[in-house]
Amino acid sequence: MALSGAVARPPRHDRLPIALVTLAVAAPLLLFILYPLAFILGRSFVTETGLGFANYARMLGNERFLGILANSFAVTLVSTVLAVVLAYLFAYAIQRTAIPWKGFFRLVAIVPLFAPSLVQAQGLVLLFGRNGLINRTFDAGIEIYGYWGIVIAMVLYVFPYAFLILSAALAVADARIYESAEMLGAGGARVFRTVTLPATRYGLAAAIFVCFTLVITDFGNPMVIGADYGVLATEVYNQVIGQANFERGTVIGMILLVPAAIAAFGEKYISARQFAVVGEQSRPLAIQPSPGRDAVFTAVVVAIALAILAIVAIVVFASFVDLWPYRMNLSLRHYAFDVQNGIEPLWNSILIGLMAAAIGVVAITASSYMVEKLKSAASRPLYFVSILPAAVPGMVLGLGYILAFNNPANPVYLIYGTLLIIAICNVYHYHAQAFLISSTSLKQISPTFDEASATLGGSRFDTFRKVTLPLLAPTLVGIAVFFFMRSMVTLSAVIFLITPSTQVAAVSVLLLEDRGATNQAAAFSVCIMAVVVAALLLTHMALRLAGFRNVSLIR
Amino acid sequence: MTLAIRGVVKRFGALTALDAVDLDIEQGELVCFLGPSGCGKTTLLRVIAGLETADAGAVLLDGADLIATPARLRNFGVVFQSYSLFPNRDAGENIAYGLECRRWAKDRIRARVAEMLQLIGLADHAGKLPSQLSGGQQQRVALARALAVDPALLLLDEPLSALDAKVREGLRFEIRALQQRLGITTIMVTHDQEEALTMADRIVVMRAGRIEQVGTAAELYDHPETRFVAEFVGRINVLPVAPDGGVCGRLMALPEGRLAGRRPALVGIRPEAVRVHAPEAAPAGALGAQLEQAIFLGNLTQLVLRVEGAPEGDPPLLAELHGLRPDGFAPGAPFAVELPPAALRVLEWR
After folding, report:
1. In chain A, which residues have pLDDT < 50?
2. Contact status, residue A495 vs residue A395, Cβ threshold 8 Å
């Protein structure tokens, strides 16, 4: 009966254990999310003359900074619109037309997720840069550095995220509505405007918000291809790393946090209002071939796929070239990694990825179980803290970690400067997405299983160990892969936490690229992609062998 | 094991789901909670199981109050409407679950699981996952899982409502036979009166968080105390009683009030108790009536009759006759009816 869902406070005998578990779950969330954020917020108010808004006032009165702020929005708005439009076309082609090779194109669309986040800029420079393939071969005089370089790189970078959201939105459709529209005499354009577009408007809004956040907080691509065109994210980096000016860095970070947070909460708000477009009676849409339409969409999809593949291909190619762009004969010498630190950053990345996967699975299981299954007064605040990182740019979190934990008085200082703190930072940086995946799965595990277990004499721990955890296991494997993948490719939060001995591969790409060691940078990128793809394939095969088929590993 | 429920109250916000419920259940009997959805029957079962905490009142098992005992320590077997077999465990592992929680030794568990599978006739299906079993098989495994731990009380929450009609009928008898063989005190929640009538020793009719009437199937059918019970169990003609004591425009001998000074406001008569005669064969004192509609239902025929002289607004009278063929009965045909005073039940007092 519907009434049974309204569980009031737990009975008395349960309260103490619940309080202890709550504390065990809440403590790391507070320590690794709220505490660093509070620290960075506090620090941004520290001035020579005491606490105040002077830092903000000075920053917002600074013409150069206002220019950078405007740049950030110019890049973000244009990139977001372009990426969402292209992703919509691509997703529409996959879900609603009869183009050939859908499986292949779907895979191509998500390829950028496997690469370090600055690979787009890296590839663009190799193609269109001063020493790029095109300018070298055709003497075309293309100038890629600056605004348009950043925009193109960003569009390619966020494309897969928008595609995954829009593809899911376009995947569901009720054939009856389309038939009704057609029977009423609506033409193709009208059906799209009055049926398809409204049914996918939540997906569209979510895609826009997600892309907005990703673009405005990304700093790898503008670092590589932006030249003098500064944006907020690169400015944070320049202030903190270049000039060791933490006050300015924190203030810009906090200013960066505002639009990112608005977009993140906008996305949560939208996805909470998403309603079911298909009911039990719905009939799935059967796609009829239409030669004209299919030809147009095939052309669009092929063009986008070529752009994505060209980036990856040129990076792979460059990694095998003797000395770009002077000696273009092939060579394996860049895979010897005779650079500073050698191959170690790649091993560091893999280790961090494995640690983040392990810690992440435990942390996510605990927090999502706490919020979804052990309903208590703490559930709502814990939910909020759990999804808060979605609103926090990685750079801001990383900066918060330096300010909060690079202090011998803090116990976390013991692991400061180790791979472990980087892994922990990655876990909490991506906590929101993983948490939502896990809590969605937990919601699908009916509460009657808990009740059945209780009436059979099972304690909460019995239920968790024998029922909940086995049912959640495939999702947790997906979450482990998610943390591993993100740890391999992320730049933003870790950039502030690395030390000479804890260098990671994605940062190596950035530093090598910055030094002009193009070939080695490309080789590092290729290694990162290879590790990510290998991890995905291995997990996929392991899950297949274990009998799980419908586990999505790509988020 | 006897169960006593004393003044149990349960509220969900503004809604009172259970309103001071009292009930006694004897050792070895099967009691059905019957009522429409929202009447509180499932909530009462869940309070007994310990899945809901009552706001007031006591649940006593052999005299000991259970209110402070959590569900997992009550040692009750519960079968849910949705089976709720653990999807990651096969049939045998599901049955073993409660035994594992009680830390039984492995070989003892194995023997008990085999015994239970034998009992429900699924000995060959031990290794199958719930998704590989039919609905009826799943529900039998759920029953075996609940019984494996030797529960003090068996609680069944609409155990058959998710099944096909055919499977449902077979399982009714199976559950009842098993319950009687084991002699286990059992409570079953259902909204299906046929299920309650065929399975229960006693039926508890509930409405809006209160117990309306408790009795055997025959008691409820023959002596309903309220209009709700009369209408929920079988069909009945409900006739208003005029202030002067007239029914269908005729004064009749009606039962005396239970409390002095109270007089009947509504009476009921089962359709098969209405006596129908051809007008020419009408006994003295019979009421004249006209046929509105005759409905042929095979072994029985329903006649919808308008009684002459009945007050405006009274519903038509329904009579059921066995073995009668209504051929040639035209609307408007005259009949004579008798309402035997012994068959009249008072359903409401004023």
Report:
1. 1-9
2. yes
Cα of A178 vs its chain's centroid, Å: 34
Position B209 pLDDT exceeds 50: yes
Residue A473: closest C-alpha in chain B: B88
Q: What per-residue confidence (pLDDT) applies to A275?
A: 61
B122-151 pLDDT per residue, tens: 999 999 999 999 999 999 999 999 999 999
Flag if B17 and A466 touch (Cβ within 8 Å): no
Q: Which of A441, A365, A462, A442 is nearest to B71 (CA)?
A: A462
Distance from CA of B133 to the nearest CA of A (A): 18
CA dist A136 and A134 (Å) reads 5
Query: Is A449 near chain B, with CB under 8 Å?
Result: yes
CATH H superfamily, domain B235-349: Nucleic acid-binding proteins (2.40.50.140)
Taking CB atoms and an 8 Å cutoff, what residues of chain A touch B15?
A: 3
Helix (H, G, I), strand (E, B) or coil at A41: helix
A-chain CB neighbours of B38 within 8 Å are 1
Q: Among A15, A448, A456, which would you mutate to test the B interface (most chain B Cβ atoms within 10 Å of its Cβ)?
A: A456
CATH 3.40.50.300 in chain B: give the residue spans. Answer: 3-229
Tell me the shortest Cα–Cα distance from A4 to chain B, in angstroms.
7
Domains of chain A (ranges plus CATH)?
A: 15-36+338-545 (1.10.3720.10), 62-319 (1.10.3720.10)
Q: Is B77 an interface residue toward A (CB < 8 Å)?
A: yes
Predicted ipTM?
Answer: 0.84
| Cβ atoms of residues B128 and B91 within 8 Å | yes
- Min Cα distance A123 → chain B (Å) is 47
pLDDT in tens, B299-317: 889 999 998 888 877 889 9
**Are the beta carbons of A455 and B146 separated by less than 8 Å?**
yes
Could you say which of 3.40.50.1700, 3.40.50.300, 3.30.70.20, 3.40.50.1000 is the CATH number of the domain covering B3-229? 3.40.50.300
- What's the pLDDT tens digit per position in B241-294? 888 778 887 777 777 766 667 788 889 999 999 999 988 888 888 888 999 999
- Give the span between the Cα atoms of A260 and A254, in whole angstroms: 10
User: Mean pLDDT over residues B63-88, rounded?
Assistant: 90
Give the max Cα distance, chain A. Answer: 79
- The pTM assigned to this predicted structure is 0.85
